[in-house]
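Researcher: Here's the sequence for the chain we discussed earlier.
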Amino acid sequence: MIEIRRADPGREAASLADLAAAAFQAGGRGWAADTFRQLAPGVVCLADTALVHGLLIVRIAASEAEVLDFGVVPTDRRRGLGRALLRTAITEATQAGADRLILEVAADNHPAMTLYTAEGFLTAGHRPAYYQREAVGRVDALTLTRQL
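Model: Thanks. This is the structure I predict for it:
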């Protein structure tokens, strides 16, 4: 069984930064430890219990929640961890009073789109040439939303 927990961005900033770097190695992005330490109230960091396989960062404000970042280490993908992280974020947002969860995803990220569609997300917007990819250049982003 996959266990997800809230991570403490102040106390576990270095581990979260390492996890983000591992999860986003192909994209060359990830949050620095200082970024985790400076997260505002209402931002929740979710991760596997060991802090080595995947994380999801969600900001919850009033009736809306937004996934700020979400990644699973490449060797751990397609094993249910992403779904567990997303479902935990949905639960956290719902319990905090949000009635909608939004996120952005690269239009060419077909595995993520499959997950989001299966979890009830619908396309709400489109941002042309939003992401920069080393190998392919600019890639569109889709804004997705799910009612909670």
